[in-house]
Amino acid sequence: MTKKIFYSLQVVIILLIAINFNSCKSCKKEKLTLADTINVANVDEKLISEIKTAKLIFYSLPSPLETAMILKRAGATFNPDNLNPIQKAKSYITTRSMALNLGIYSTDLSYACLFEQTQYSLQYMAAAQTLVNGLGITDAITNETIEKLKENINRRDVIMDIISEAFMNSSSFLKDNNRSVLSALVLVGGWIEGLYLATRLIDFKKFEENDLVKRIVDQKLSLDNVCKLLEENKDDPDIVPVLNQINELKEIYDKIKVKTTEIKTEQNSETNVTTLKSKVEYKVHKDIFFELCEKVKDIRNNFTL
Amino acid sequence: MKNITILIILLVFTSLNAMFGQCKTFAKDICKAELKPYIHDGNYNAAILFEGESAELYKTFNAGMDYRIVVCSSEIFPKVQFIVKDLNNNVLFDNKTKNYVNKWDFKLEGTQQLEIDIIVPGPQNQNEELSSGCVAILFGILDKK
């Protein structure tokens, strides 16, 4: 009997370890984690040593809210024609299309909010709610969320907080429920929509010294994180086509050479804010930039089909 | 015997879900407040870590934006170290030199990919119980109209 109980406990420990490996695919887990507390005396030394050297790796992409803020600060304007129409929300029936377009609608929502487009903000929150419900993400965007948005429609700070919380609720739900593939697709959808909106707003007559062009080129750095995030689940059938398209985008980005100087830090003792001083230089030919914009458009249109 | 095993497995699953849920609540209720007046970007980066474990986060920070990084942890880990490095491994900030302060405000002249290392100190005594707790990294952005 004692032997059988001991055997069961061993099974539980093995399962715990297996769950750990599987439960954290959104962050690459190189070793293992988890369990409330473990008594060292009951665990062999090899396991302890693995825990000590364990390392989680996260690849963080700009959230829809950050993307919209980058656009606004780079001098973008609001053009509703560039948004993904809300009428399409109900036509997304596969989990892949729902996840990608949840990211896309979240960026459109943030973009509308930043430009104080109240009606669009409400409409895009409702579109995001349709997809959140379709994906079975409970409590991320509820009817109360929409009501709260309506009540505070003229308070930009409150609206941004509501958007940020809705996004956090959905991403934490997906990560905690071992749906890292969908979590990655939401982020990638939102990131592509940010790039799409930026590329649509470029005035090619004012190409040189254009802040929007600079921010689009800067996304070359985020693209590395996008690739790594997708590669964590590279064999997943929902990830494969997205990763292929992202790799095509990467081939174009690779034609743009970016040089950054060493970072010098300078702290303001009054505000306690540190400035990271560095220069980023890039060379991009108009034709290559145009090719980049077209590829972004292709990918985005494929996501929103 | 089979029933006992199934019961234990169910208990394990339930406790794991509860722990993840607690981590989210912790990040939302405790850590998010530390971001103010910066706006939380909405990304959720939190995990249950053991003593002695570490984590790395890679993120691109954009030119012209003002950021706040908040690293917060369960009470069980009072001194979690976080180090911000550039891609050449140059240390830009280490909270160990600032009495383990849990936040850092910065802005950038040029867009940079940075690495944030989180280090949970190991147990002081090898025979101690190895504890675990929630560690969250949140990012805030200053909203300039």
Account of the 3D structure:
The complex is a heterodimer of chains A (305) and B (145). Chain A has 2 domains: 2-57, no CATH class; 64-254 and 286-303, no CATH class. Chain A has 305 residues and is mainly alpha-helical. The relative contact order of chain A is 0.11. The radius of gyration of chain A is 22 Å and the shape is globular. A two-stranded antiparallel sheet of chain A has the order 1-3. In chain A, strands 4-7 form a two-stranded antiparallel ribbon. Chain A has a two-stranded antiparallel ribbon with strand order 5-6. Chain A has 11 helices and 7 strands. With 145 residues, chain B is an alpha+beta fold. Chain B has one domain (2-141): Jelly Rolls (Sandwich), CATH 2.60.120. Helices cover 21% and strands 41% of the residues of chain B. Chain B has 1 helix and 9 strands. In chain B, the strands form 2 sheets. In chain B, strands 1, 2, 4, 7 and 9 form a 5-stranded antiparallel β-sheet that branches. In chain B, strand 5 (81-85) and strand 6 form a beta hairpin. The radius of gyration of chain B is 18 Å and the shape is globular. The N and C termini of chain B lie far apart (65 Å). Mean pLDDT of chain B is 86; it is low at 7-14. Chains A and B meet through helix 1, strand 2, helix 2, strand 3 and helix 3 of A and helix 1, strand 1, strand 2, strand 3 and strand 7 of B. Strand 2 of chain A pairs antiparallel with strand 9 of chain B, so a sheet runs across the interface.
Summary?
By secondary structure, chain A is mainly alpha-helical.
Largest sheet of chain B: 5 strands, antiparallel
What fold name stands as the CATH topology of chain B? Jelly Rolls
Average of pLDDT of chain A = 86
Cα shape of chain B: globular
Q: How many β-strand runs of chain B? A: 9
Q: Which percent range describes the beta-strand content of chain B?
A: 35-45%
Instruction: Give me the secondary-structure category of chain B.
Output: alpha+beta
Percent helix range of chain B? 10-25%
SSE order of chain A, as H and E?
A: HEEHEHHHHHHHHEEEEH
Largest interface: A-B, 81 and 74 residues
Provide a count of the helices of chain B: 1
* SSE ordering of chain B: HEEEEEEEEE
Radius of gyration of chain B: 18 Å
Low-pLDDT parts of chain B are: 7-14
- How many domains make up the 3D coordinates of chain A? 2
CATH architecture of chain B: Sandwich
Helical proportion of chain A, percent range: 55-70%
Taken from the alpha-carbon principal axes, the silhouette of chain A is globular
Separate helix tally of chain A: 11
